[in-house]
Description:
The structure holds two protein chains of two kinds.
Chain A: H1 2-23, H2 25-49, H3 63-92, H4 95-100, H5 106-129, H6 141-166, H7 172-189, H8 201-209, H9 211-224, H10 228-233, H11 238-262
Helix pairs in contact in A: 1-5, 2-3, 3-5, 3-6, 3-7, 3-9, 5-6, 5-11, 6-9, 6-11, 9-11
Chain B: E1 11-22, E2 25-36, E3 40-44, H1 51-58, E4 66-71, E5 74-75, H2 80-86, E6 87-90, H3 102-112, H4 117-130, H5 146-158, E7 164-168, H6 176-193, E8 196-201, H7 204-207, E9 212-217, E10 220-225, H8 227-232, E11 237-242, H9 246-257, E12 262-263, E13 268-272, H10 275-285, E14 292-296, H11 300-308, H12 319-333
Adenosine-5'-triphosphate (ATP) binds next to strand 2 and helix 1 of chain B.
Amino acid sequence: MIGRRVAKGIYAIWYRETKRFLRDRSRWLGLILQPLLYLMLVGYGISASMSFRQAPTGMHVNYVTFMYPGIIGMSVLFMSIFSAVGMIWDREFGFLKEVLVAPVPRWAVAVGKALGITTIVVVQTAMLLLMAPLAHLPLGLAMAAQTLAVGALTGFVLGCLGIVIASRMSTMESFQLVMNVLTMPMFFLSGALYPLRGLPHWLSVLAHIDPLTYGVDALRNAVYGQGEAARALVQYPLSVDVAVLAVMAVVFALLGAMLFERQE
Amino acid sequence: MPEDRTIAPPAMIEVDALTKRFGELTAVDEVSFTVDAGEIFGFLGPNGAGKTTTIKILATLMAPTSGRASIAGFDVKRKPLRVRESIGLVFQDNSLDDRLTAFENLYIHALLYDLPRAVFAKRAEELLRLVDLYDRRNGLIRTFSGGMRRRLEIARGLLHHPKVFFLDEPTLGLDPQTRNAIWQHVRALRTETGATVFMTTHYLDEAENCNRIAIIDHGRIVALGTPDELKRRVGGDVLVVVSPHQASLAVAVAERYGVEVQQTKEDLRFEVEHGPSFVPRLTGDFPGDIASVSVHRPTLDDVFLKLTGHAIREETTSPMDQVRANVRAMRRRS
Lengths: 264, 334
Ligand SMILES: Nc1ncnc2c1ncn2[C@@H]1O[C@H](COP(=O)(O)OP(=O)(O)OP(=O)(O)O)[C@@H](O)[C@H]1O
Ligand SMILES: [Mg+2]
């Protein structure tokens, strides 16, 4: 019964991923403290010292309100890439061998990993939603549901991207490289902290292929709901963001499964 | 003429001219052997001999450069999933998730191998008791000692009742007491599950636990047989002589008695038919050259030394050897 095997294999990897997360207190703490610090220090700091000019004239939008979905995006980015790249760690410390030698197709292992990361990201997004009042945003049921769904999709895309990278790398040194040359630029180019206007052409091209650009924009759409702020601060309609993310999800998932299948 | 119809037990592992190259280096060189069902088969060889590489190929973790291999009738290249179903492994280095508990590690294994829940619960308890870890089943692996981890890995490898059980240096780095305990577990578990065991080691005394042994050096099998057969390759007794001027004595002894003298770092060794009666002759012939002499029945150490010309435990080469090797390598390049 290959179907049941695949399902149980996916579940095994998912179980491990989430179990490890639940047990790791420091990750929980980082999960809450880091975004909170950003929101407080950067957000309040900037909004107190400068006026935010992106909002249309006559409309008051606090910078913290602008930044808050960006902070969710940032947390999703770091969590998913960090978790996926943990595979390099698994390879170095042996657990990956136990998985690779099991009678489960390798692509199923990659899928389990991606779903595990997605689950963790949903939990994370739920915790971050509780900070909405700090950003002067009302917490609603529809808004929460949309934000969680969009967060999950973004987490899945970035998790798969992380798996693609991790299956091509074998040492922890390369992990540092990934963090510096990929994750940080992805973050700054995504529009999480400031609206991207008037970028040089090549940077704007990069911003347009940055998955996080669409992730953050989708989060803004979801968090602001139908209010005035939404129309002023988002780049694309939610449907466009979701469509782009969905295409990226399929591409990265296929690529990740393929590369994972091929490693020795 | 009617043929002999006795049915031989089916071969569980069949390896034919298996070769693995890493660039210039041939890690496994035209290796061929078969292992029958229920056998304990040992790969004995020094560091870098190609033991782990062979296991990786047999376990479908690595593709061979050439040659073929099959496990339980399934070709490792064409039917990797069927091979993986049939085998259990204990890797040379740790492969447990140290952030999880012993029980959770077993549970993940059960999921990966599609064990029904009830079967898993029963076997997990049995195996954990057998390796004396039942009381620690909810302990995090991070808090386990090396020996405990090894025992748990052995239990985990057997959880799905593999037909062939691979153990890559299962007792490396463990104290003698733990090594003995692990051997007892392996034998007990094997009797219980009837698995075929393929193990590697560079402890010769451990290799004596095997039904048959292949001695491997530089990727090649240099001898294959039961421990007794291999020991019979060394004729008679082994004399071990420690001397202040080892090199000159070696030459003199070889000339005088027409024997082949093997030199190791600490001593020189040669074989004679009857050791005890030879000692007085030796000390009489070379007074002043001999610091000590001892006699023993041949061990696998002696077999290894005789077949390969070097002792298995000499893991580091002397600085002079290193220089010679470098010079040779330079000549080859130019
Ligand atoms: N992935 C690899 N790339 C390049 N060379 C390799 C690779 N894996 C193994 N080798 C080389 O192949 C040779 C055989 O290695 P192998 O690990 O099989 O030895 P071993 O018999 O298991 O040794 P040990 O007793 O130290 O475990 C060694 O010279 C090793 O350096
Ligand atoms: Mg090895």
